[in-house]
């Protein structure tokens, strides 16, 4: 009795609907292509929202495609570039759970198998439809005996598989919810990284804006320690849309307010503000979750800079009012959140550590007193943890340590690192 993970392909494993993309390839020279594209997209959405049977939707789309094998080769190349970011970065999960991960899709093996196989997913665990071709390689239909070509196909297939254990479903469409409705799976997770369908979200056990969220709540191996959708980015003042678009793409939870208040700041992991709206030193002393400030302008108040540093909060500002700060500042914030990089900060010592693969990165910020690095390493030594790389920089107020360690440690290690005397902030990055 194990656990199984039933994962959809279109708009879940990938960011797009593959048949829609195939139409754009096969019909690119068709004079009425825009109208046909829209017809195919409408048929897709009606089925995904449960307003049209999947069987009718599939039949209608295949008739409109006018595709052949050469188009499928182009589609596969395109889809490999369109894997959902949270799936792409969590290759370790798929590698460690090859037996338990199943791709179950109303799409077609001809384009699904070459894409998902690169993520350690076994071919025998890929369940999808099969195209039928004529002698010239044109797609003329599909195997109608395959249950996945029929209405309620995923339910029919799962009944045939008769998997023994807890089954979790991840997908964006109505056919994915039907698995939960049938009672065959334990929980259904509505996947919204690419598209959010209200009719599906309302019926889900849990809404997961990324695979990171799913892995986090189920305590499964993942590329980042804490899902970005759970980190609130407080925005106050004049912050350009281009900057916020970058943060949304990263998955952060954007919250707009007219002013900085203690209750807003206490919930935020990131603050974006302008020169006219900056936190006070007192507010920073009580902002326990705040990790980084991006100020679109100059932080002139020395007390704010010092208070941020003393509380382990890094500040990136733009004293030159660079016209490209809408791109510059979010990139600096993202580099710090993702890699621990402090380059161009106005209050932290400069550190640009290289990424080390197959390692976990830990950040330790502490008061600049002697002996902290020795205490950190003593914890690792006592638990027989190998250090793959370690970086220490200091200024007059703080020490900033990044340690990359081999995978394999328990929660006790993290607890001991947090409790070292003079620790200001500790974070498991990935």
From TrEMBL:
Example GO biological process: L-serine biosynthetic process
Organism of origin: Mucilaginibacter aquatilis
Record CDD domains: ACT_3PGDH
One GO CC term, this protein: cytoplasm
Reactions this protein catalyses: O-phospho-D-serine + H2O = D-serine + phosphate; O-phospho-L-serine + H2O = L-serine + phosphate
Residues in ACT domain copies: 361-430
UniProt-listed InterPro entries: ACT-like_dom_sf (IPR045865), ACT_dom (IPR002912), AHAS_small-like_ACT (IPR054480), HAD-like_SerB (IPR050582), HAD-like_sf (IPR036412), HAD_sf (IPR023214)
EC identifiers of the protein: 3.1.3.3
Metabolic or biological pathway: Amino-acid biosynthesis; L-serine biosynthesis; L-serine from 3-phospho-D-glycerate: step 3/3
Cofactor: Mg(2+)
Keyword Zinc-finger appears in the UniProt entry: no
NCBIfam families assigned to the protein according to its UniProt record, in alphabetical order: HAD-SF-IB
Listed GO MF terms: L-phosphoserine phosphatase activity; magnesium ion binding
Pfam families: ACT_AHAS_ss, HAD
Keyword annotations: Amino-acid biosynthesis, Hydrolase, Magnesium, Metal-binding, Serine biosynthesis
Protein name, as recorded: phosphoserine phosphatase
Domain of life of the native organism: Bacteria
